[in-house]
Design a protein that fits this description.
Blueprint lengths: L1 H16 L5 E7 L7 H12 L4 E7 L5 H6 L5 E6 L3 H4 L5 E2 L2 H6 L4 E4 L32 E4 L2 H14 L13 E6 L3 H13 L3 E7 L6 H9 L4 E7 L2 H12 L3 E4 L7 H10 L8 E4 L8 H8 L3 E4 H17 L18 H11 L7 H17 L1
Parallel strand pairs: 1-2, 1-3, 4-6, 7-8, 7-10, 8-9, 10-11, 11-12
Antiparallel strand pairs: 3-5, 5-6
Helix pairs in contact: 2-12, 2-14, 6-7, 6-12, 10-11, 12-14
Length: 378
Amino acid sequence: MAASNHRERAVQQEHASQPALRHCCAVLGKPIAHSLSPVLHNAAYRALGLIGWEYSREEVGQEDFERFLSSLDGTWAGLSLTMPLKKTIMSYGTPCDRWSRELGLANTAVFRGEPSAHDAPHVVSHIIDPHSVDSHSAASRNGIALYNTDVDGIVLAFRHAWEATVADQLPKAGEPANVVILGNGNTALSALAACVVMTHGAHVTMVARHPEAHLSITQFAQRHAGTISVQPLSMAGDDLDVAIERLGNADIVISTLPAHAADGIAQLAYAKLVPGAVHGALLDVAYDPRPSSLQLAWSQAGGIAIGGEEMLLYQAIVQVCLMTGRDAGNYRVAESETRAAAGHAMSACWESEHATSAGDTDDVRLEQTMREALEEAM
């Protein structure tokens, strides 16, 4: 045993004397200066003691995406992608999780390769060794693993809010949930997927300017007809009054609209939803301004309001795990094929699946550090 400990210390000293290899990650988009992803990822690297890891913003649009991708060398470990690049990336890599495959959307790209001898012990084989690959291998099709962590981010944002909630504000156990989704773009598609994960069944009202214009939404609803039912409503006239009524009865509300795009609905909600009128939880994926008008209207009517920073935080935690090779199992709730029961049954399921063990100490520290960094930046 003593000899074994001596060899282990010798290996650690040898690795400590080696210069840290550089690992680059970034978030891509256009515009991208507003992104808080670097705050989250760089805080995670500090929490995990990852030396040589850096995460930046890169202003890249569709027109220059391929050129950017082909310019990457073997120091690159991963990319975070904003729309419309979440669709664009699908032509360059291999979908490696359930929702990137089904939705055709990936917000995370991980460059796979051989592990470096000097990587941290928890870093596994998909991390590229900069000294063992040619300058363009990071951009080869077979070397890019694609993931959708947005669905995880939505599910975990609700879970975090529900864990601190009184029982009468939870969806009723064993009953289909009433859901309202504002918007019908690609983020709404991820929101629908989150409903499949979070509920045994959901009656979904999709409220949008052109609610039937997104063919992918219709196709998704048809594929999951036994799990969710979707009814479209427009954001005009009598339909909007009906939408406000649906909000009042909703267990789950997800606004996927850009900042301020839901302000008109918020004003109507202020006027029609009196205090105590709602019981459900609302997630507004936009995190600037914070809180949004919709969050304020929902809170004054008695509901639980969740800011988009919660989704941002949790999807980023999964990204960090995937890019650095950590086990992401505690956060990949959206990968479960088992539908969690609503309400207390849902909470119990999560608690049993993700109960903190001695091996999860790093996960607790990681989440806390990233949350603190986000709070300071906002």
